[in-house]
TrEMBL record:
<feature type="domain" description="DUF2520">
    <location>
        <begin position="139"/>
        <end position="282"/>
    </location>
</feature>
<dbReference type="Pfam" id="PF10728">
    <property type="entry name" value="DUF2520"/>
</dbReference>
<dbReference type="Pfam" id="PF10727">
    <property type="entry name" value="Rossmann-like"/>
</dbReference>
<protein>
    <submittedName>
        <fullName>Putative oxidoreductase/dehydrogenase, Rossmann-like domain-containing protein</fullName>
    </submittedName>
</protein>
<feature type="domain" description="Putative oxidoreductase/dehydrogenase Rossmann-like">
    <location>
        <begin position="3"/>
        <end position="121"/>
    </location>
</feature>
<dbReference type="InterPro" id="IPR008927">
    <property type="entry name" value="6-PGluconate_DH-like_C_sf"/>
</dbReference>
<dbReference type="InterPro" id="IPR019665">
    <property type="entry name" value="OxRdtase/DH_put_Rossmann_dom"/>
</dbReference>
<dbReference type="InterPro" id="IPR037108">
    <property type="entry name" value="TM1727-like_C_sf"/>
</dbReference>
<dbReference type="InterPro" id="IPR018931">
    <property type="entry name" value="DUF2520"/>
</dbReference>
<dbReference type="InterPro" id="IPR036291">
    <property type="entry name" value="NAD(P)-bd_dom_sf"/>
</dbReference>
Length: 301
């Protein structure tokens, strides 16, 4: 069913909805209409989906064979009620992109005869056309009520160049938690690392004397120092798992970790040391570190 060229409607033209619309249009689907309330969404739609008409939700529902609900998890139930009130035609395929929810949230539409699926791209979106290109290398968590829905969801993902991964309805929250832990919490981790490294490079008087160039201090040096190390570590753990761990925790070096904790605790942001301690304690547990190191890391947990 999904292999046929379909008339697609998108609610709404945010980062995710626009990227999916571009990807579907690129393989021949007719992305005919969408909702776009904010100036940013309207500008994004005009630039990247110029063929699509901007309509109200009821107009998009009436115009669509495939309806994509690309709204945040918290907004999805309200949007589903609005779509149900608009009366989608029986047989309309309705897909939502919320990570933590399966197809139960679409039950009001299933009762009206819609084919309901959850299609969540495991990717971060920044709002540019790069998002669309990344979809081709992404996995998508798909959930449906039956084999027909599974086949449609998988076909749509494969058309866009992605890889479908089936997630049970009961496991959608766990699936989403894993992605948030690996991707969103990584942002917090690297932000803290940049903060600490900036302070170290600035020196005790807050001057970037060690990194001065002919044009003056280099404010981006901390990111440049970290970038190759972080990328190599990510590649290593994805290939080797926990065996990729290096550094003082891997060496069971409690003395060095104690000095790390003291240095981080002296920074203005006193919560930074808490993040280091929590992640180091987890790494120590995974690597089988000795009691002295584990006690040190768990002392203020």
């Amino acid at each position: 069913m999904a292999a046929a060229r379909m008339r697609v409607g998108i609610i709404s033209a945010g980062r995710v909805g626009t990227a999916l619309g571009e990807a579907l249009a690129a393989v021949g689907h007719d992305v005919a209409s969408l909702t776009a309330r904010s100036p940013e969404s309207r500008g994004r739609a005009a630039l990247r989906l110029p063929q699509a008409r901007i309509l109200d939700p009821s107009g998009v529902v009436a115009d669509s064979q495939l309806l994509i609900l690309a709204v945040p998890d918290t907004a999805l139930p309200t949007v589903v009620d609005a779509v149900a009130a608009a009366g989608p035609r029986p047989g309309t395929i309705v897909a939502h992109t919320a990570g933590a929810l399966g197809v139960a949230v679409l039950e009001p539409l299933a009762r009206l005869g819609a084919v309901t699926i959850a299609v969540h791209p495991a990717m971060t979106f920044v709002g540019s056309s790069d998002d669309t290109a990344r979809l081709a290398s992404s996995c998508f968590g798909i959930t449906s009520d039956d084999e027909i829905g599974d086949a449609i969801a998988a076909a749509l993902v494969l058309e866009m160049g992605g890889t479908p991964v089936r997630i049970a309805e009961s496991d959608r929250t766990l699936y989403h938690a894993a992605l948030a832990h690996g991707a969103n919490n990584l942002i917090a981790l690297i932000t803290d690392a940049v903060t600490a490294l900036d302070a170290a490079i600035a020196g005790p008087h807050g001057e970037h004397s060690a990194t001065a160039t002919v044009d003056g201090p280099d404010p981006g040096i901390a990111r440049r120092v970290l970038a190759p190390l972080v990328r190599a570590s990510l590649d290593n753990v994805l290939e080797m798992g926990g065996a990729a761990l290096t550094g003082p925790v891997a060496r069971d070096d409690a003395a060095t970790v104690r000095r790390h904790l003291a240095a981080l605790a002296a920074l203005p942001d006193h919560q930074l040391v808490d993040g280091y301690r929590a992640l180091s304690a987890r790494a120590a547990s995974q690597s089988g570190a000795g009691r002295e190191l584990r006690d040190l890391l768990e002392a203020h947990a």
